[in-house]
Amino acid sequence: MHPEVAPLVEAGRISEEIGTRLSQLAPGNYCLHKSWGAGKVLDWDIRGGKITINFEKNEDATMGLQLAISKTEQLDADHFRAQKLEAMDELRELASSDPVELVRRTLKSNGGTMKIDQLERELIGSVVPEENYKKWWDGAKKVLRESRAAIVPTKRTEPLVLRDENISPADSLLQDFEAARDFKAKARALEAIIKDFKHFKDNAEAQEAINKSIDESVRKGMKLHLGQALDLLVGRDELMAASDIIELDASALRVSDIIANEGTKIGEELGSLPAARQRMVFEAYPAAYGDAWVKELLAIFDTVGPRGLAEIAKLLIEESKSSELFEFLRKHIGGRTLGADSLLWVCRERKKSAEPVFDVEVGNAILSLLERDVMDDGPRKSSRLQSYFMEDRGLIADLLEGADNNEVRNFARKLHQSQIFPELDRKSLMARVIKANPQSQELVNSDGAEKKTDSVISSWDSIAKRKEDLEDLISNQIPQNREDIKIARSYGDLRENAEYHMAKDHQKVLMRRQADTEAALASVQGTDFSNVNTDEVNIGTVIAFEDADGNSVTYTVLGAWDSDTDNNVISYLSELGNSMLGLKVGDSVKVQNVEMKVTSIEAYNKG
């Protein structure tokens, strides 16, 4: 007890409890005020009942002793808040030279655990300048994980936890693994274990525990997080490959088990995995499907994303299955059913892996896909392919190399009539066609050009639907997006505010959609498809086809916005629709790569 306070307690003027608390506020000691922050006691007047404290947010504040006792709490001299008063220069130097020690001190003063936003309140502005904090924290997180001084959470809502300084590297790695609450965190902790496997090489018990934990986690969560579950299992297999002392239990879940159970759903879940991890999944297909593994692997070729499909192609070529790969590609290129990522891969690999399937049909397939994407109301899926088609200045020449004059002319006509590209871009592309094949010059000559109007034709119903969509966009979606932005902005810290950035990105999509829809509605021509000439295929006709084996199919050619592929209703602007225009009964055309003959032509609107 302080010498000036002890006599008051002995004389019975104050209680021992008050005396102890008053001694904590002796000059030179530290305290904490809820509003004013940490403070150092400068002086007191016990008889006058006054005390002077230098607070972070209220310098040289004079308070009544009773008020100070009730409104402050003791702060040890080695507490981080006290150090900020006495050794700020040292703390700022630590932020630069040893961020691990800075965070360690902060955590120790707060019971060894803090939320990320609590840490920010302690450091931003005082120890680390606000404008530099994000960059500083990104670097600090990395060295913290490497040093294993603390358990660094993956989410802001989870705590940053100081480790026991005496814990071994192996125990700290296991601690991270066991503390991981989701697949991503568990996979990251497993990667750290694999990287420092030397700490576990002779520890069979620890290896068994890790395997068991992974198996249990995957069985519980793979239905909701299939891709992440596969990532974790592949990591488990890497761990087993490094082990010399244990083998995977016969009852353990394997990658091939999940592949066989989930089928083509696998392809949609692998996009976020690194290429090397995807490759390990693909290598498990023979174990999952036996002799049918190539067929099953090709079934997901168009859904696994650019990294995945490149790995599938490499694997098939390495395993002497290239003939199956090329047959698959030719079929889907000819049928115009190959996706944007796959077509992009074919173009990029045109002088390497994809050379056997690269020809002018790839160009036609690209234009068809871009047209379909433009006609769809949803988000663009082919923007990367379109950019590549425009930017690779040698692509068109390579596409037309070896093509006959008729094939070149058909490709040039399709490109010339296309509404995909802005006028200047289309002229630039046509110039490349003409350079590769001068005979296509006639398509752009004023006397021989096939005129293309700026407007399109569509049914009144489809136009009304577009107007309804525009009204919903203006009256509901855009106002709701503005409200979402306001709400997200209220969360603060826009640098790491994912909700705010998502809302702003969505705003750009909505505004672009509004502009595109308004422009399209301004130029469209409405029709009810009445009084159509059925002597040949025109817009508004129903055409029956039959192949050499007697198989029949019926298509309806309608306006630009009237497509219904499930019911074989196609736009006259589509490649298939355009190829049908002008046909008469008895004429033939390729439909989905099959030669078909026109058997009848009827009016869509018979009224």
Strand content: 5-15%
What is the helix content?
Answer: 40-55%
Counting DSSP E segments of at least 2 residues, the number of strands comes to 15
Alpha carbon gyration radius: 35 Å
The residue-averaged pLDDT reads 89
* Uncertain spans: 446-453
Determine the structural class based on helices, strands and strand pairing.
alpha+beta
Shape: elongated
Strand order of the largest sheet: 4-3-2-1-5
Largest sheet: 5 strands, antiparallel
Distance between the termini: 105 Å
The total count of helices amounts to 28
SSE topology:
Blueprint: H1 6-10, H2 16-23, E1 30-33, E2 37-45, E3 50-55, E4 61-64, H3 65-71, E5 72-75, H4 80-86, H5 88-97, H6 99-108, E6 113-115, H7 116-123, H8 133-147, E7 150-151, E8 159-162, H9 169-179, H10 183-195, H11 204-221, H12 226-242, H13 255-262, H14 265-269, H15 275-282, H16 285-289, H17 293-298, H18 305-318, H19 322-334, H20 340-348, H21 360-375, H22 383-391, H23 395-400, H24 405-417, H25 423-436, E9 457-459, H26 460-490, H27 498-523, E10 525-527, E11 541-546, E12 552-558, E13 569-571, H28 575-580, E14 588-591, E15 594-603
Parallel strand pairs: 9-10, 12-13
Antiparallel strand pairs: 1-2, 1-5, 2-3, 3-4, 6-8, 7-8, 11-12, 11-15, 14-15
Helix pairs in contact: 5-6, 9-10, 10-12, 11-12, 12-15, 15-18, 18-19, 18-20, 20-21, 21-24, 24-25, 26-27
